[in-house]
Structure formats: C-alpha cells, structure tokens
From TrEMBL:
Its EC number is 1.13.11.1. Residues 135-163 form the Intradiol ring-cleavage dioxygenases domain. One of its GO terms (biological process) is beta-ketoadipate pathway. It is an enzyme of class 1 (oxidoreductase). InterPro entries: Catechol_dOase_N (IPR007535), Cchol_dOase_prob (IPR012801), Intradiol_dOase_C (IPR000627), Intradiol_dOase_core (IPR015889), Intradiol_RC_Dioxygenase (IPR050770). This is catechol 1,2-dioxygenase. The gene is catA. It comes from the Bacteria. PROSITE patterns: INTRADIOL_DIOXYGENAS. Pathway: Aromatic compound metabolism; beta-ketoadipate pathway; 5-oxo-4,5-dihydro-2-furylacetate from catechol: step 1/3. Keywords: Aromatic hydrocarbons catabolism, Dioxygenase, Iron, Metal-binding, Oxidoreductase. It comes from Pseudomonas putida. Belongs to the intradiol ring-cleavage dioxygenase family. Its cofactor is Fe(3+). The keyword Iron applies.
C-alpha cells in the first residue's frame, strides 16, 4: 500500500513555510508558484512511488540539462511550448478573437539585433553553397488591408541545420534579418534553403526523448516575428515543403534539403507544424495577417530571455 502524507496538516504547513508564506517579505506570485510546485511534486512522488534513486537521477539530469543550455529545447520537445500556444488559442476563442495567421512556437535560437533593411534583404553571407531560396509576401490586417512599416524579423538554419551565433563557424547574423515592409506591406528576402536538423544525439534533450521512444528531428523551417504598431505581435514559423518530382529535376540528389518527402514535415518533434503554416520551397510566397491589439502590451513579444536581448 502506498503511504501518502502530503495532504496532512503538518506537511502542508511545512510547504507553506518553505514557500515563504509565513512572512510578508518576498514576491507573492513566486511564493504561490513554488507552493504549487512543492505540492504537485510531493503528490507525484507519492502517486508514482518515485524511488530515492529515481529522484536523484532526475536532479542530476536537471543539472546536466542546464549545463548544456538545453532547457528551452526540452520545453519544445516535451510539447510544453506548444501547449502554451494551444492555451492562448483557447483564451482567444473564449474572448471572441479570431482570424489572423496561426501562432506557433518561437524555439530557443532567436538572436536579437539582426540587421534592419527596408523592403528587401539578402540573408546569407554567400559562403554556404546552398540552393538559392526567395521568400516574399505581404503583411495585412485582419480585414486584408496591407500594413506598411511592419517589421518582419526572420531567421533560419543553414544547410547543416545550425544557426549563427550558436554555431561559431558562421558569420554574425548569418541567415537573420529584420525587414520593414514597403508601402503595400510587402517584404522580400533572398536566402538559401535551410536543412532540417535533429537534437544532439549525445545531448540531454535526446537522452530524454530516447527514454520516451521518440525522435528529435525537425523539418526545414523559417522562423518569424511579425509586428506593427497597433497590432498583436505574431510569433510563428513556416515548415517548408517541395514537390519531389520537380525538385529532382532541379537539384542533385545530394543537395536535396529536408522538406517534402521528409517524414518529419508533419512529425516535428517540437510540435511546431500547424495547418496554414506550410510553404512551398525555393520560391516561398507567404502572407501574414495580424490581429488588432486590444492593449499596448499585446504589441510586444514575450519577455523570455533571448541571446543579445537587452532588458
């Protein structure tokens, strides 16, 4: 029989003390969160009869996860980041907020301060012998009116599936740009076809996925932040597909990127693929539709920590 004590008055009083609820100093919101973490962790230990060895293996795993800076990656891989999107979708539906381009996860590899261009930009530095890709589209409001002066902040991996800043072999801000839309809300970018990629097979995220019997692969994709004064900030990404018969006639087989024909297009370990967020490859035309912001804070992206981001 499982012994359970977390519900007792003595243990609850102990948790309240640990969470700082026996004094006024500190942050009330943080205290509330810590108390819930303590209570739920205790119930988890009791309900699943977590052994002492299992508990300390978990603590060791968290230490190693932080040491490799993979917590953000694991949050995506376990679907927690996707859950936040699903929850916000439900809140929007409850509030009667519909329309607009679907949101999806940001991922952990954004870098603030990319070069800013007016209307169009070249994203690659010319050192990667990849296949040229053109991206263009327009930014509209929910009624289809073009939004001039919107900011399209986009980034993606290279042909090896790695990102500048995190990959020291790439030049600064390679494959990262911010583009201000023109008078008709249009943006244009020249880049190279990115590759899909997987988690480091020796990393802590893949270690967890292995125990779950899951892969850690992502299809080729491009990340976007879309913002404009008076409109809700949009965080999204498009996964890329291409009709293989056409591509085989254009590319050498060895140069085929990780796109259509790639089983991971709809089996993304980070759960970022969503209906309405698939783009044809090589010439990617993708428009964005923004919802009006009900309050000024809705115009800004979340305040999660990001590389080179101030404040």
């Amino acid at each position: 029989m499982t012994v359970k004590i977390s519900h007792t008055a003595d243990v609850q009083a102990f948790f309240n003390k640990v969470a700082g609820l026996d004094h006024a100093e500190g942050n009330p919101r943080f205290k509330q969160i810590i108390l819930r973490v303590l209570q739920d962790t205790a119930r988890l230990v009791e309900d699943l009869e977590i052994t002492e060895d299992e508990f300390w293996h978990a603590i060791d795993y968290l230490n190693r996860l932080g040491g490799r800076n993979e917590a953000g990656l694991l949050a995506a891989g376990l679907g927690i980041e996707h859950f936040l999107d699903l929850l916000q979708d439900a809140k929007d539906a409850e509030a009667g907020l519909g329309g607009g381009t679907p949101r999806t996860i940001e991922g952990p590899l954004y870098v603030a301060g990319a070069p800013l261009a007016q209307g169009e930009a070249r994203m690659d530095d010319g050192t990667d012998p990849g296949v040229v890709m053109f991206l263009q589209g327009q930014v509209f409001d929910a009624d289809g009116k073009p939004l001039a002066g919107a900011t399209v902040d986009l980034w993606h991996a290279n042909t090896q599936g790695t990102y500048s800043y995190f990959d020291s072999t790439q030049s600064e801000y390679n494959l990262r740009r911010r583009i201000i839309t023109d008078a008709v809300g249009r943006y244009r970018a020249r880049s190279i076809v990115p590759s899909g990629y997987g988690c480091d097979p020796q990393g802590t995220t893949q270690e967890c996925l292995d125990l779950l019997g899951r892969h850690g692969q992502r299809p080729a994709h491009v990340h976007f932040f879309i913002s404009a004064p008076g409109f809700r900030h949009l965080t999204t990404q498009i996964n890329l597909k291409m009709p293989l018969p056409r591509v085989i006639a254009v590319f050498r087989a060895s140069a085929l990127p990780n796109c259509e024909g790639d089983k991971y297009l709809w089996d993304d370990f980070a759960y970022a693929t969503r209906d309405g967020l698939i783009g044809e490859l090589r010439f990617v035309a993708f428009d964005f539709h923004l919802q009006a912001a009900a309050a000024p804070e809705a115009e800004a992206r979340s305040h999660r920590p990001r590389a080179l981001q101030e404040g």
